[in-house]
Amino acid sequence: MTNVHLSDERIVFLREMYEDGLGIAEAVTRPGTVVLWPRGGLHKSVGSSHAPQMAASARRALGRGDNWVAQALLDGAPSERSIPNLRAVCALRMGRPTEALALIEPVVLRGGTRIPSDEIPDEWIVTLATARVLSGDVKGGTIALEWVKNVRYPARDQLLDAVRKWKQAKGFFKRRSGPVLLDYPPGVV
Q1: H-type alpha helices, 14-82
Q2: pLDDT per residue over 123-150, tens digit each?
Q3: Of 43, 89, 167, 180, which sits 20 to 30 A from 174 (CA to CA)?
Q4: d(Cα 180, Cα 175) in Å, to the nearest integer?
Q5: Residues 6+ apart with CB under 8 A from 184
Q6: Could you tell me which residues are beta bridge partners of residue 17?
Q7: What DSSP assignment string belongs to 2-27?
């Protein structure tokens, strides 16, 4: 790991990723720092055959809490089935629930349908529900949780519990004031 001093407050740690033969320069950053990538950007250096590996690398980055790294990986990623959910999770974890909603809703509710098809993974549905809740549409989020096929899905229960706590804390007449707070990283990868 090499330290590059951008200023006294900003340090970017660069390391070379050779996982899956990608050889991508990954920047692990502190909030407010700059993410550095190979000249030309990822979209020019990585072909569509590497999309699954890039999605896997983004999942690992999200698992480590490196949301900015995951976002940078996904910004240059070619199309792959799980990419929209991963992008939405990045947006949620970076405090942009409205953006996350715009990314995930058209994928989960294809063609403007009102409920998702059976092929949509529960992870994506919970990410949609979380984006709705954090965007202020608590009712829409809880309705989306009813679409989760596995009724014992832990992420579903986590979000339902957070909404329950929010409703109890706010009381009946004050429910609409203040956002739902989560004590875990939002979205499911």
Answers
A1: 42-45, 51-64, 67-75
A2: 999 999 999 999 999 999 999 999 999 9
A3: 89
A4: 10
A5: 158
A6: 24
A7: EEEESSSS-EEEEEEE-GGG--EEEE
